[in-house]
């Protein structure tokens, strides 16, 4: 079964169960982009929608659309693929002025509809292949129209986003029934930004919102984009040949977190003490994304790419392999470092700069002395090239 077919079936079952329970969520007093009330911005991120045509993608029970119509004067079209979800919205809110509910595939509907002034999706666009949904949204929005997307970033098991455009299994949890398996495109923020840029949008902001309970791992991302007035011509490129280049380098990142207690170091299973970090993954992961991902995977700490300051590159050779390590400072984070069961580094602790332990991993030692040359740390030499600090990074 194709990924989107799996999702269609899951949401049809979910909608039927809610119909059987006669459950309709209350109309909210405030538009919330996360599952947690009061966290993050409200409807203001859509701009002034008074009298504007707004598309609610995957409108579900219709309560968000009704709020926008009643509290903000928008003319909202709720588009929903699941017949049972559509029935929930239509049966409860069909008489509300300024709102219409349609049961249809969003890409097929937008191919024939008059362009909208704004569009949003609260937790729903990740159930549709972005290579199908984003070009349809580009063509279905007026130039300059905002597109606001609330998307899963890290699930309740602590699994962070993917750096490749591929779906993976996620569960719809139900209080009294077995969970429903779905296929979701849970993508890293940089990958969403690349996709949106490719399909004619300008990304204006990406925010991560961790669960308000610090013991929970769930993180939601809010992505604000705007449809460009035109698509600029793109210059094509191609590889030199069809053969992949020979691998000859290992590329990784290491992150310095400095608190009042000192530097954060963890102990590897092989005994070395080291900074949070690891290898940069393929498919276009940036150094900043790699730092944020590795920090979450190894320590459970949550940071944003805007919290990451890249210091520079360290280059050395190990057994004939070129090793490139990018050092970084993470200035702000949330949570407390905790040993993660499946990781090779744990026992995280803070070490004062004047009491650094013996047995530092070479890459970590190189990063620390590149950052603070006065630190009395011995290590094999590496060539360090500092990154220039652009004004917009300050």
From TrEMBL:
Check the UniProt entry and state the signal peptide residues, or none.
none
For activity, the cofactor(s) needed are:
Mg(2+)
* Cross-referenced Pfam families: Methyltransf_25, NUDIX
Name the domain of life this protein comes from.
Answer: Bacteria
| UniProt KW keywords | Hydrolase
Any one GO MF annotation of this record: methyltransferase activity
Output the CDD domains linked to this UniProt entry: AdoMet_MTases (cd02440), NUDIX_MTH2_Nudt15 (cd04678)
- Which InterPro entries is this protein grouped with? Methyltransf_25, NUDIX_hydrolase-like_dom_sf, NUDIX_hydrolase_dom, SAM-dependent_MTases_sf
Q: Nudix hydrolase domain: which residues?
A: 246-374
* The name this protein goes by in its record: NUDIX domain-containing protein
């Amino acid at each position: 079964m194709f990924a989107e077919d799996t999702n269609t079936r899951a949401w049809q079952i979910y909608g039927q169960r809610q119909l059987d329970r006669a459950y309709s969520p209350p109309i909210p007093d405030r538009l919330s982009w996360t599952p947690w009330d009061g966290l993050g911005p409200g409807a203001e991120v859509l701009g002034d929608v008074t009298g504007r045509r707004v598309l609610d993608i995957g409108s579900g029970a219709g309560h968000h659309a009704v709020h926008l119509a009643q509290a903000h004067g928008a003319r909202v079209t709720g588009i929903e693929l699941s017949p049972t979800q559509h029935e929930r919205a239509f049966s409860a809110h069909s008489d509300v002025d300024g709102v219409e509910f349609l049961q249809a595939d969003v890409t097929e509907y937008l191919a024939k509809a008059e362009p909208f002034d704004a569009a949003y999706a609260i937790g729903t666009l990740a159930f549709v292949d972005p290579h199908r949904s984003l070009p349809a949204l580009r063509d279905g929005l007026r130039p300059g129209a905002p597109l606001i997307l609330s998307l899963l970033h890290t699930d309740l098991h602590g699994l962070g986003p993917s750096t490749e455009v591929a779906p993976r299994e996620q569960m719809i949890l139900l209080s009294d029934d077995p969970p429903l398996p779905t296929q979701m495109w849970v993508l890293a923020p940089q990958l969403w930004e690349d996709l949106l840029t490719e399909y004619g949008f300008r990304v204006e902001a990406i925010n991560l919102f961790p669960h308000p309970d610090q013991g929970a791992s769930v993180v939601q991302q809010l992505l604000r984009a705007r449809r460009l007035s035109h698509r600029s011509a793109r210059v094509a490129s191609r590889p030199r040949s069809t053969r992949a280049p020979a691998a000859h380098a290992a590329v990784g990142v290491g992150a310095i977190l400095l608190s009042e207690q000192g530097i954060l170091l963890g102990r590897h299973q092989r005994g070395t003490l080291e900074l949070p970090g690891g290898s940069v993954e393929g498919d276009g992961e940036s150094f900043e994304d790699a730092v944020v991902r590795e920090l979450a995977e190894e320590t459970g700490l949550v940071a944003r790419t805007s919290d990451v300051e890249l210091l520079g590159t360290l280059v050395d050779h190990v057994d004939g392999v070129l090793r490139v390590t990018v050092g970084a400072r993470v200035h702000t984070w949330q949570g407390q470092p905790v040993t993660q069961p499946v990781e090779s580094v744990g026992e995280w602790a803070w070490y004062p700069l004047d009491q650094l332990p013996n047995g530092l991993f070479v890459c970590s030692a190189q990063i620390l002395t590149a950052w603070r040359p006065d630190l009395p740390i011995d290590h094999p030499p590496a060539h360090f090239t500092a990154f220039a600090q652009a004004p917009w990074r300050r």
